[in-house]
Task: structure prediction
Amino acid sequence: MTIPDVQSERDFRNLPINQVGIKNLRYPITVRDRRDGFQHTVATINMYVDLPHETKGTHMSRFVEMLHALKPEVSLKKFAVILETMKRHLQAASAHLEMCFPYFIEKKAPISLAAGLMDYSCRIAGSSDASGKVDLLSEVVVPISSVCPCSRQISRFGAHNQRGEVRLALRFKRFIWLEDMIELVEASASSEVYSVLKRVDEKCITERGYQNPKFVEDIVRDIARRLVSDPNITWFSVSAENFESIHNHSAYAHITSG
Result:
């Protein structure tokens, strides 16, 4: 008995499709870890290829089959291999792959040195065009703390502070560690955020933040200034959002290198 392959049938509407594939697939992956070499985590994966105008559909099951065979690792070399494999197996001219995953780093409190795990939301996106050129982007979302410079200046007692979130996306010439991106963001805030703090640590980071007040504008400008002077960075996008403690709205700033 012959089972018809409907996806491979000819389509007569003469309309190519830019991206077709699977979305929101949860799958275990391996990520390069600066301290331990590798870290295992679970990603939400999107995989797409282009579809020529004469083909009715793509073979969706092949996307998952490829992931299972390749046992995906997040690195420049492996991303390029997966993209080229997608193009070859699905007879496509271009391919796009996106992985979003939690990444964990052990952080020690500044005074007590109490250790705890901090999780960061990360995204790696890559594409390969018809010429084989690979474009890769890394993104991290980093929680931070900020103290308002205006509040500190005008108030007789203290200053309002809040937790915020910085989103940093980079294109680069050579591999860059997720840890390096996270540390750049944390160094540009009023203070870092920790998972475990003792009283001596709370005193330390509260005073540190008070001595280093930052608007969202200050945070994105300080990060952008560092990136502009880094010859390894070819493009960046950085945004900061403060979840204001005295307003029912957020403060926001964004810079992109264009």
About this structure: The mean pLDDT is 91.
